[in-house]
Amino acid sequence: MLHEPSAFDLQPEPLCSGCVDMDKLIRARSAVGKITALFCILFSLSIIDAVIAGFRQSANVFDLLPGTTVEINGIMPGKVKSAREITWTGNSNHILLTIDSIQKGHWFGDNMWQGRLTIDPDILAGEYSLTVGLEGMKIQKPGEFLIRVYKDYAGYSQSFKSFIKRYLDISPWIMAAAFSTFFVPAFVYIFFLSGKIEQLMAKQGKAVVYRVKKGDDGFEVSFSLGTAHGIRTDTSLALLNEEGKPAGTVVVHNVSETDSVARVGPGCTVKPGYTVALAVR
To answer: Residue 171 and which of 15, 189, 250, 261 are 20 to 30 A apart at CA?
Structure first.
């Protein structure tokens, strides 16, 4: 009478080169996975920092250093045909505004002017005002700007709304882009390591349960062992938990060349990540 293998028939396997290789691959995959998770967290924090900084920075406030030139734009209510119609005033002769163009804005169809704001190298540190409007028209809030000039870069850096930019002097968008370049090769490498681990496990008659489905007659599990590995319909395999201890048995009822679906024995607890193994006597 043939003996039906069970979970209790499993015996400790002697240490082999394949086992050592698989242990190295598992450790490598775990290390890469942890590093990737860390980079994902840092990527998310960089994006959050950049977005929050954008909301905190007022469009009508400029923090600058002497001798710098930045792009500036604003909304101009009313009809404007030429940039020459726009006038501006400031409370310092060391501030220069140059209007370059006018285009239809995105906010309620108002005109939007675009220009350059230049700070003279000889300007003193402090707060300055700048107003932009049409000659003869009352200046409205969109045309009022606050220019804060700092004596040195140390003081200027404290105005940064981004914590990453303030303390690391790196744009959070650049940092996020740098972290994102790591994801694709990392995931490809993890996929490669997982494939190698799966191949070594298959040679030992083992596979990880990648899907658990609850049916009318109990649970069904799917795993990557098939006819190419000697599995047939009604083949019985041991079910091992995440610690490698026996958790029951499964019986194959649907098999392909590389994958199988098996019914779990009554009363067994199972979840993805468990292992099935061909029992040995």
So the answer is: 189
Overall size of the chain counted in residues: 281
Q: Is residue 2 part of a domain?
A: no
Which pTM was predicted?
0.70
- Write out pLDDT tens, residues 48-87: 999 999 999 888 999 999 999 999 988 876 677 777 788 8
Task: Note whether 65 and 144 are same-domain residues.
Answer: yes
Domain that holds residue 104: 58-149
Rg of the chain in Å (alpha carbons): 34
- Which of 115, 149, 183 is a domain's end point? 149
* Whole-number pLDDT of residue 106: 56
231: nearest Cα among 268, 281, 279, 264: 279
